[in-house]
Amino acid sequence: MPPIAMEQELSLSSDSEESVIADQELQEAFAKGSLKPGLNIVLEGRPKAFNNVDGLKRCLSEFQRNLSWVERLDITSPLETNVTGAASKNTVEKGSVDPEDDFKREMNFYHQAQASVLEALPRLHQFKIPTRRPDDYFAEMAKSDQQMQKIREKLKSKKEAMEKSEKAKQLRALRKYGKQVQIDVLQKRQKEKSTMLNAVKKYQKGLLDKLEFLEGEKSSEPQKKEGTERQPIKKGPNAKRRYKNQKFGFGGRKKGSKWNTKESYNDVSSFRASKAHNKGSGKAGKRGAKKRPGKKMRQKIKSRS
């Protein structure tokens, strides 16, 4: 028999023996009543916690180094002790910040870092350590340019959305104001129109003797309260009659008004001989004046000269 087949046969026999032993152990445990229905897993007990203070101190003393602050550059600046301008306005008490509010949490981180920087700068200047980066210094940012571009676009879109909403709010207010102004103008026009119609009706009935309301002028007479009407004029004809007399005449006989009388026939003071017989005017000597020569005659005279 080849050695490989022998090894396989030995491994199979060992596995079968182990399974038989496991089955016997399970049967004995079941007979004792230590097995319960369900999945049976052997649980190992948790190791008991032991606070080895001496060992912790020994480990700390092994890697602890007494370095100066210039080598460590560590600053601890809680928010409660900030007295700087920007951070003092935003100091908060412990537990008052909502952990779900990302904006406030980031602002607290920012103010704490700002206070730490303001505390560290004087100490660095005291040790004569430069704090300004050279102009030709190249540093790689913690965040990539693509990430910063996404943040910039997001902030820009948020700002544009706020501007659009503000502009829409202003347009709604202006539209509302313009509509109210338009309503006021229409009401004013309607009121002026009704006032004009009432004045025309009163004038037609002879209750008004002037047409000042057509010209938009204010009457020199004292105005009466609304609801009162002007009393009709009793002396002489009314305003309507006077207006018609002024336009069409004052009545009386019109027939034969242009006939000559003895006095008008004998009155020759307005007679002008120059006008009557075309004398003395520019047209007086028109009969004796020479006529203009014809076109051919004018051309001959022009060629001669």
TrEMBL record:
An example of a Gene Ontology cellular component annotation for this protein is: preribosome, large subunit precursor
* A Pfam family of this chain: Ebp2
| InterPro entries listed in its UniProt record | Ebp2 (IPR008610)
Could you say which protein family the record assigns here? Answer: Belongs to the EBP2 family.
Known function? Required for the processing of the 27S pre-rRNA.
Q: Where is this region: Disordered?
A: 214-305
Annotated coiled-coil segments of the chain = 141-168
The annotated regions of Basic residues compositional bias extend over: 274-305
Entry superkingdom: Eukaryota
**Location(s), subcellular:** Nucleus, Nucleolus
**Keywords assigned:** Coiled coil, Nucleus, Ribosome biogenesis
**Any GO BP annotation:** ribosomal large subunit biogenesis
Keyword Acyltransferase appears in the UniProt entry: no
Name of the molecule in the record: EBNA1 binding protein 2
Give the species this sequence originates from. Pseudonaja textilis
Specify residue ranges for compositional bias: Basic and acidic residues.
214-232
